[in-house]
Every structure is written in C-alpha cells, then in structure tokens.
Design brief:
- The structure is a single chain.
- It is built from five helices and 23 strands.
- It has 496 residues and is mostly beta strands.
- The chain folds into two domains: 317 residues, Outer membrane protein transport protein (OMPP1/FadL/TodX) (Porin); 153 residues, Immunoglobulins (Immunoglobulin-like, Sandwich), CATH 2.60.40.
- It has a 14-stranded antiparallel barrel with strand order 1-2-3-4-5-6-7-8-9-10-11-12-13-14. Strands 15, 18, 19, 21, 22 and 23 form a six-stranded mixed sheet that branches. It has a three-stranded antiparallel sheet with strand order 16-17-20, with no helix packed on it.
- β2 and β3 form a beta hairpin.
- The longest helix is centred in the C-terminal third of the chain and has 20 residues.
Length: 496
C-alpha cells in the first residue's frame, strides 16, 4: 500500500477506532498509487496499453524501452489532485512528477524521473512516498529497443522505509503501424524495510504485454492500444496474483498545423488487494508544434476505481511536456508538414527550376555530352573536379513511423549551377572518381538548377529499402553552366 498509519498508544477508544477505520478505507484506494498516479498523464488516459508506445519520459513506468526510439531532449512536469473519497479527516492527497530524457549518439537514451505522493494536510495519516527512477534505453536494431529502470522508493515521514528494484522492457516496431511492448515492473518484488509496526509493504510486481496500432493518416492519426498482464501483490504475508486487461484509444486532430489537439480514453479491469477494480479515464492534449521542438499540455480524469463512488469522483491530472530536437516525440508519430516540405513537393519544385539563362536545345545536348565526358574522365582521374566549400548540416526529423533526414546546404560556389547531386555512403569513402562514388552510394539525390536550401531524404537506399543505423557520409557535387565539376569534402551524420 502507499499509505500507512502511524499508530500511537492511546487510551482514548474513539481515537483508536478512528485510526482502525482509516486504515481499512485507505487500503483500497491508495494501494494502486505506486503503479499509476500521474507518472504519465498521457499514459494514465491510455492505460497499460501505453506500454506499446511509452514515447516520453513518464512512459518509462509503463515500458522502460519506449524512450529508446527518441532522440534529442524531453522534459516533463505533472501534478495530480487525488480524490480524498473514503479518506479520514481533512486529507488533501496529491502526486507530482519531474522527469526528462536525453539522447546521446552512440550511447543511447538516458532518463530520470522524481515522483512523490503525499498529502497537503498537516496532520496527515498518509505516508509521503517518493520514487527516484533512472532509466537507460537504446535501439538494439532499427525496429527493436530495450531498456531498464533502476528505482529507489523511500518514505519521508513516519516509517521512513525504503526499497530498491528494477524494471525491464522491450519494444518492437513490427511495422510503421504496429508496436508490441513487453515490460516487467519491480522485477524482484522487494519489501520496504525496515518493517513499520505490523505492516509489511512490497513493491507490486507487474508484467504487461501491450500492442498498439496506429493509422497511417499523418494529419489526424488514430492509435489503438490494448494490454493484458498480471500483477503480484503481497499484504500481511498473503501473496495474490491478479490479471489485468486494458484498452485505450487516442485521436489527434490537425496534426499538420502549428496547434493540434488530441482526445483519448481507456478502460482498465483488475483487482487491488482482492477488491475489484474497474476504472475508466479520459484525457485531452494541446500541442504547439515547431520544426524542431514542441510544447504539449495534457489533462486526464481518472474515475474512482472501486464501488461506492459516483462517476464524478476521481483524480484530476495535468502535465506539461517539452521536446527539443526530436520529431519522434510527436504523439501522432508524424512531423509538422507545413514547416517541412515533402519529398514530392521538393521534386516538383526541382523539376520546375531552370538556370538563370536557359540553354538552347542544341546547347543542352552539348552540355549533356560535356557532363558525360567529364563524368567519365573523373572516374579515371580523381582530380577532374574543383574543390568547393560547403556550409551544411543534417537534421534528424525521423519518428517511429516516418524516417526523414533534412540536409540544409549552402555551397560555397558563386557561379550558375546547372545540376547537382548529393552522394550518401554508409562507409567512410576513399578517394575515388564520380563513377565509383555513384556506384558505391546507398542513395544519390539529384536535381537541376540551383541547389535547394533544404533537401529531404527518406532514409531508403537505391532499392527503396530502409537503410540500417550507423554513421553515414555525404558529399555535394555540382556542375556549372560550362560543364565543370565542383565537389565538397565528405561530412558525416548519424542514422538511427
């Protein structure tokens, strides 16, 4: 249980009975708090099925592997006003969370969460319970992530008990639409020590198998989540196993606009220390989109899960989430299309581009022959091109469903450009000619006219298969109006 009563020797029978009755009433509603009270407001509104997504810092409490698919930074803060129904006195229970995740290339993703549940009432009978969780997750391959939590749970009043435990999780993206998560919470089912009075408390061991399905509509996607599992609870030496079932849905609207919103809901069925648990939750989000960051405000209402309360009795949860440098944090698993042109849009723009002084048809033929001539010569002589400076960088705009890398290029060339190519290699290139550069490239992006400031690559190779993760290299080659070739140095960038 999350709350424990402080017993005093007192000759006043009325006070003793008040304490006993408070213990009975507090046992049921507070027992489940260690599993799910505002650790993720979005997750609370999706139930245990969130273990198949878990793509935010608070999601590690559902599946530690979820943040393995994230890059960049995320931070979240949440607060919950928990229902005081059936609690003695003037209890004013609350819970709060401060968390974040950080991705480091080549290392993986690190997460940290600090959670507290207690009461604002000065004479509270509830123990203030704290949970400090450190997470490590990483991609095992482009479709599979693994992760674990190390958690330290301790009480900051009354018994001052403490315990340590671990969570394990894996998340597999079977396709762009389907995710499968498997997670075990409190693997060792450890006991809070030292023992406080006659009350033994154990961290609940929970195993979840969750599946998600997301529609492919990038503007208004729908995600369905469901989970089955089992949890093991122990109270006063009696150990019980209970099944759990959860279903949920999330619908996003106008996801390609600067301001988007979502509605979600869930229904959960299980038991808590022998008492039937039936709980629904509903939630909504407002999301402020930018090219490389976002702000999201989440709200959730959880009804009181046991018999005896009206449907308006429950918990109110609210959180704020900030993401930087990771479009994969978008709940809809899409990107802001209004800010970043699609490849189709870019290709249409490139086809319409012409040199400042268009060549005549005969000159075009001569120019094409010159290109082929210089191109063939360069394959045998590595010095057939001129050196060109390049100011550029590559931004990872990928999500769990869409792979997008944005090349932002500014060639250091002042003349007119007739054609250009970006060569992408998966190995460190060696000095070679253009013919070998193209032959060995996993992908070549090309166009006519001026080099666009933004070029988007979908992460696929020449055969339209997804490229594997690792370090990749790119070089920009341009042809001027006289058929001369200019090439930049090689630059590297990571691919997940």
């Amino acid at each position: 249980m999350m709350s424990f009563l402080k017993f005093h020797k007192n000759s006043d029978g009325l006070n003793i009975w008040a304490v006993v009755l408070a213990a009975i009433f507090l046992a049921a509603p507070i027992a489940m708090a260690q599993s799910d009270y505002s650790k993720s407001v979005r997750g609370s509104a999706l139930g245990d099925g969130f273990a198949a997504l878990a793509n935010e810092p608070g999601g590690v409490f559902y599946n530690a592997a979820g943040i393995g698919f994230l890059k960049g930074y995320q931070a979240t803060v949440s607060f919950s006003r928990i229902s005081a129904f059936n609690m003695a006195g003037a209890e004013n229970p609350y819970s709060g969370l401060l968390g974040g995740s950080y991705y480091r290339e080549g290392w993986g993703t690190f997460g940290f969460n600090a959670y507290q549940m207690g009461s604002f009432y000065s004479n509270t009978l509830l123990n203030t319970t704290n949970n400090v969780t450190m997470t490590y997750a990483r991609l095992l391959n482009p479709a599979l992530a693994g992760g674990f939590n190390f958690k330290y749970v301790f009480e900051s009043n009354y018994g001052k008990r403490q315990a340590m435990d671990f969570d394990l999780g894996v998340l597999y993206k079977a396709s762009e639409a389907v995710g499968i998560g498997l997670a075990v919470e409190n693997l060792f089912h450890n006991e809070m020590i030292p023992q406080y009075g006659n009350d033994n408390r154990f961290l609940d061991r929970i195993a979840r198998l969750a599946v998600s399905y997301s529609t492919e509509d990038p503007e208004e996607p729908t995600s369905f989540v469901s989970a089955i599992g089992v949890k093991q609870q122990e109270l006063q030496g009696a150990r019980e196993n209970y099944g759990l079932v959860s279903v949920g849905v999330e619908q996003w609207f106008r996801n390609d606009f600067p301001l988007s919103w979502a509605l979600r809901g869930t229904y959960n069925m299980s038991k808590e220390y022998g008492e039937n648990l039936r709980q629904f939750a509903v939630g909504l989000s407002l999301r402020f989109n930018n090219v490389m960051n976002f702000w999201r405000i989440d709200y959730c209402f959880q009804d009181y899960p046991f018999e005896g309360a009206s449907t308006t009795t429950g918990n109110h949860l609210v959180s704020a989430v900030f993401g930087l440098g990771d479009a994969g944090a978008v709940p809809s698993l899409t990107r802001n299309k209004s800010a970043i042109p699609s490849e189709e849009q870019l290709s249409q723009e490139y086809a319409a581009l012409e040199p400042a002084n268009p060549l005549s048809q005969s000159r075009r033929i001569q120019h094409g022959e010159a290109l082929r001539k210089d191109y063939a010569q360069s394959s045998s002589d590595n010095n057939e091109w001129n050196k060109m400076n390049l100011h550029g960088r590559v931004e990872d705009l990928s999500s769990s469903r869409l792979t997008r890398y944005m090349f932002i290029l500014q060639p250091g060339f002042s003349g007119r450009i007739s054609a250009w190519k970006v060569f992408i290699h998966d190995r460190r290139p060696k000095p070679t000619g253009l013919e070998n550069m193209e032959k060995r490239a996993v992908k070549v992006l090309s166009g006519q006219g001026t080099v666009p400031g933004v070029i988007v690559w979908d992460g696929k190779n020449k055969d339209y298969f997804d490229c594997g993760g690792g370090r990749y290299y790119y070089s920009l080659v341009v042809w001027d109006a006289d058929g001369r070739i200019w090439r930049s140095s090689w630059y590297d960038f990571p691919v997940r």
